[in-house]
Amino acid sequence: MALASAQPPPNKPGNPKSLRKLIQSRLGENMESQFVTVLEPYDPVPFISSVERLEAVHLGDENSVAAVAVTMADGTTDIIISCEEPTPVTVDESIEFTGRFALLRLRHGRPAMVRLAEASVFRYGHIEIVPERAAYTGTVISVDVSDPHDNRIQLDPPLPPGAPLAGRAIHFHNDLPLDTSFEIAWVTPEGISTGDITVINGFKDAADYTAGYTYVVNPGDTYTIPCEVSLDIVR
């Protein structure tokens, strides 16, 4: 543990010349830590009263699931569950959830809103949500960048005709150290288009432009398009 004086950004009015910082390290073998960040954008009065970590019982990796209760100044409480991978989890002995992300809003102790992503089951009290589909998944067959304004990716299976997926995110899974998520510009009969957002990573040979390209999305990559569920409870 160490204390230091650090200079904050000078371009923000009101910042002092220096701020005291605490630098803390945990060293040793087989050590793991889980960090949960709750962002509170406010001006000028904070609206979060407290953040409490909740017990989450599951069979996944110990640090792969986080659950917190965020209580607002008006008494509203948001219970947030985040899973690295869709996982069956019981939170605070009252919420059963299988999926990637869940938000339950309680107003005066009663459920007012539910938001789910890539979920297959959500239960709380008398509320039970079993979505028809948690996500669209499959494999990349080919990539076509011949039209720079219409970068196309063929998927197997292709997406259902008429599925309202334009504007949604599609996540491609591979070993590249890059963000391989794209916004779907439109759905095609064979898959999707990213519009004018290229999926080219670079040249195969920087000295020979005719050698072709490397791509951030490649045949054999898997894909996921999480489905979302919204429930607003009017009393």
Q: Radius of gyration in whole Å, from Cα?
A: 23 Å
Q: Report how far apart the termini are.
A: 51 Å
The number of E-state strands comes to 20
Tally of individual domains: 2
Broad shape:
globular
With helices defined by DSSP (H or I, 4 residues minimum), what is the helix count? 0
Instruction: Give the % helix.
Output: under 10%
Order of helices and strands: EEEEEEEEEEEEEEEEEEEE
| Strand-residue proportion | over 45%
Taking the sheet with the most strands, its summary is: 9 strands, antiparallel
Uncertain runs = none
Mean pLDDT: 94
By secondary-structure content and strand pairing, the structural class works out as mainly beta
Structural overview:
By secondary structure, the chain is mostly beta strands. The protein has two domains: 34-131, no CATH class; 135-229. The strands form four sheets. Strands 3, 4, 5, 6, 7, 8, 9, 10 and 20 form a nine-stranded antiparallel β-sheet that branches. Strands 14-13-19-11-12-16-15 form a seven-stranded antiparallel β-sheet, with no helix packed on it. It has strands at 2-6, 19-23, 48-53, 56-58, 65-72, 77-91, 95-107, 110-117, 121-124, 127-129, 135-144, 152-156, 169-173, 181-183, 186-187, 191-193, 200-203, 213-215, 222-226, 228-232. It is globular and about 60 Å long. The protein is built from no helices and 20 strands.
